[in-house]
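I have been asked to look over a protein record a colleague put together. Alongside the sequence sits a line of tokens, each denoting a local backbone shape. I have pasted the whole thing underneath without changing anything:
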Amino acid sequence: MMHLEALRFGLALVTMFAAHQVADHWVQRHSDARDKAGPGLAGWRANLSHVLTYTMTLAAALLAVELRFDLGFHGGWVFAGLTVNALTHAWADRRPPLRALAVRLGKTEYWDQVPGGSYQLDQAWHIGWLWVSAFIIAM
């Protein structure tokens, strides 16, 4: 028999993955996408604007699933999971820190030379943290 926590985890993960795709590609404003890794306050403003709309999209999707299926998501764990996701998303979308991690892990050529390599590593980072966030939310 499946435990309710396992069901919550699975539905949270698939819901957040779908919402991630919408939020990162459709909801995100072009100006935020263009400027979020930029220097100074303008870069941070664009980054935080994107992460706010991104997180609101994920929260709305999770709320819709909760209202439809009454899974018993606990507000505190949802908040914790979405916070972890928002922080890791903001960190990666500043770009230089994520590139530095890629360099440290021996992924420099992949980041710099593979067409779409930096985007693929960025998305892999985000999806990995969606998994962690769903795990937290399912508690």
About this structure: The chain has seven helices and no strands.
